[in-house]
């Protein structure tokens, strides 16, 4: 059941009925020259939407962020019931924003050769050397997404991360699943496939994304699916697992 007609008339209607996809066109970079070009973020400064000096100023503010958070930890008993709820929401948002920022800082560190010039043997080690308590799986996720956003084909993902629309974990899971189904819907654009998964990523368990991939492969694999029985079994069981070692 492969082919453009199948996707536009059947698969797309079926997927749209199941999930309202995110339109990623608005998140595409208008400054493709920069490695990290995205809305308000350019690796070269060309076409940069961020005024000069914002980077150092923001980095200075970050140095005061951790102490401020810990002051909340030590004085949480002074907060009223309503403040506890609001503060917890703010802290969770800070944690998500921090991981997004880690991705962009790491991507720059990789592309500029900062990590190669360090004593770390890999980007994961570079992170865990600075934060020994960081789980290798989490460090690996940050590294993988950092590498993903350096690909010009993923300008929309850079943009959606900067906009705060999706978490790093959501991007990671969406890319993993979109890659799984790309072979059975070859005429769907990369952004179209990502749009479906990104719409679900931060609102559903990752198992829901995996189930959607299984449904797509089962419904639209057809002559796109491997013909060899052994290869077919491997195709059906394809998965991405974060091991303790990253």
Automatic annotation (TrEMBL):
It comes from the Bacteria. This is Alpha-E domain-containing protein. It comes from Leekyejoonella antrihumi.
